[in-house]
Amino acid sequence: MSFEQPKPDSKKYVDLINEIQKGIIKIPKFQRNFVWTIDKTAKLLDSILKGYPIGTFILWQTDERINDIKNVGNLDIPHTPEGVKVQYVLDGQQRITSLFAAYLGAHIQKVGEKKTVDYSSIVVNLGADINDNDEQVITAEPTGDNYISLSDVLNFMDRMTDIKDRFSDQDFKKIHSYSRAFDTYDFSTVILRKEDIDSAIEVFTRINTGGQTLTLFEIMSAKTYDEQQQFDMQVKWENFIKELKEIKYEGVSSSVVLSLLALLLSRTKECKRKTILSLDKQNIIDSWDGVVSALKDSVDYFRTTYRIPVSQLLPYDSLLVPFSYFFYQNKDKPNADQRKYLEEFFWRVSLSSRYSSSTESKLAQDIKRIDQILKGQRPDYNDIKVNLDSPQSLIDTNFSAGNSYCKAVLCLLAYQEPKDFQDNGKVILDNSWLKVANSKNYHHFFPKAYLKNRTVLNGNSVINITFVSDHLNKRKIGAKAPSQYMADFQDENSQVNKALQSHLIDLDGFGIESNDYDTFLQARAKLIYEELRSRIDLSHKEPVNEEVQELILAGESDTVEFKSTLRYDLRTKEVNKKLEYVIGKTIAAFMNSDGGNLFIGVDDNQNMLGLIDDISTLSKPNIDGFELHLIEIIKKYIGAGLMAHIKISFPEVEGTQICRIKISKSSKPVFTQYEGREDFFIRSGCSSQPLSREDQSAYERSHWN
């Protein structure tokens, strides 16, 4: 890469302002936010008034349109007209923004700040001596009684009559001379006219060594921005993260999507920095939706198959890359063999600290393994050493919330869907409660405060960690011995051992009654070790879903409903579209209430009918086709934006596969669309009931406020 040495140039103050107002001078989005204080702006203007050099503005002139800042504080930056070359600021953004704000006397609200800064408050102190280098003529606040707004000085010709009326002849002459000083000041400028975007970014990087370093994602966002195709990678990624936040997976970094793009689009199947930088812009734009869809599929797979409810528990977010690669190449759900091999891959990577270093090269190696899995072949892992020699290796592992190995163990614990000791309710995990070792969701089963004065080898062993709700840690357990607080829970919860088993703990044989910490560690480590080994040795099998069986046995209620079929009318022996609408309104009713479970393939008498009749009516007659059609029904009757509240699974009960739709409460009213009308349903007893507009309004106030 070589540059033609640019020639120095200059601009007048009014030219700078005019070119900003015409949309010619723009600030690229990879520049940092405006951060200068009003005092610093005042000093800049004071230097200009006194004729001091203030540094050179470096601008990149181009026909290209890259992502730029549309608004600074409350100042809108005008759009560049078609056919006009843009001059992007590579160096001098803080100074140019200061000059613009001061000229307009603007009110600026900086990013992350609540207060608005009034730049019209900058004044020129007429009593100050301009020849005294130690005295500042222009300040953020007056230093004497005789002063004028800087904005008036900069706009002298437009406001001359008013200024003449307000000031003495002597002051008027001084103000005029100050105005001339600003008008005639030459702002040193260098304009790069022939460089492409790669060269411009290189210039920015080299001259900005003391400031913000551009991330690879910022560079790629700038390179791929396309106004005509309405492609803005940064905005698209931010919108995707908002979607992920709804399902608690907002911790995924932008490097994941860049690595995935490179592995999919590059000829060499690498994701090194230079490979990413060389990717074709149009290929990225064309592939983006498919890549994001694959990322969504892999996130959903982690949440449902591995039951990892939040991104904070992922040993590495880079694990999403190979899984997303799989789902990009394979549009169907993984078959039985692929499912086993993917599980083995996940746990071998997670338990080997694999992506702790040289992640780019290891991802490239692992994509070859995913290619084998796509073909139904089991990869070899001779180069990956799993740190799981014995239960003792788990006991010896000190718990750290950020350690990938510990996170792998936590993923296993989350898979058990741990229950609350107090009431057997599900323990709710949240990213913000899992970031550090003393966060709300983590509990040392043998409390650290209890172990403090006892001689134990590792009170902070990962084997001593359980997931609990915040209130249990602080209010119910504290520093109590396990025998004491578990006895308290037994008084409140007759099923407490069932809750313990969901944490891979048992009242029997774990030393709880005798407060035997060593026995506890040995017993629990053995269980966890066996669970982890089964996933690596391909011997792990899904347990019978007791929760589903219990829900079905309990019968229909305000949180459970059974439907014999999705669309097949058992009476007429043909498809009945009205049955699909019933599914849609039932889901909406659960969302408008407190959530619940809808089972398809189960009749009112709790008989397992299965899904065969429905599947036989579909163009894609299999479980995947059933799920796709169900999703389309949901989108049709209640909208696509509510899928985050829905979890679809296909458990097997009594040897028959049924469909379970687990629905969470919506944060806002959900309406069903049917035959041109809009209805609002809620759960009432064992059925879904519509509400009138009047009743709906009252319900909304009580339910969501």
Q: Would you mind describing this structure in some detail?
A:
With 705 residues, this protein is of the alpha+beta class. The protein folds into four domains: 8-191, no CATH class; 216-374, no CATH class; 391-536, no CATH class; 546-704, Schlafen, AAA domain (Methyltransferase, Cobalt-precorrin-4 Transmethylase, Domain 2, 2-Layer Sandwich), CATH 3.30.950. α1 (13-21) packs across α3 (93-104). The longest helix is centred in the middle third of the chain and has 24 residues, at 281-304. The chain starts with 7 loop residues before the first strand and ends with a helix. The mean pLDDT is 89.
Main attributes?
five-stranded mixed β-sheet, single chain, 12% strand, 705 residues, alpha+beta
Largest sheet: 5 strands, mixed
How are the strands of the biggest sheet laid out side by side? 1-12-3-6-2
Number of beta-strand segments: 26
Which stretches are low in confidence, meaning pLDDT under 50 for 5 or more residues running?
Answer: none
* Number of H/I helices: 27
Helix fraction, binned, reads 40-55%
Protein name: DUF262 domain-containing protein
InterPro entries: GmrSD_N (IPR004919), Schlafen_AlbA_2_dom (IPR007421), Schlafen_AlbA_2_dom_sf (IPR038461)
